[in-house]
Protein: PhoD-like phosphatase metallophosphatase domain-containing protein
Amino acid sequence: MTSIQLLSNEHGWETWGNFPHEQERFYALLTKIPDHPVVVLSGDRHLSEFSKKTSPAIPFH
Structure:
């Protein structure tokens, strides 16, 4: 769970995209999780968005 958006980098405000090094470190951590799906709740845009990242290295939905 994170209070700012993890996947959306479009708006330039509060997003993990403003911290690319930390975002990549988090993705690297996800690769260490054995074959289980990962769900991350993030937000603070005051509207709804469903985002999905696909990667062969990261079991991320």
Remarks:
- The chain has a mean pLDDT of 76.
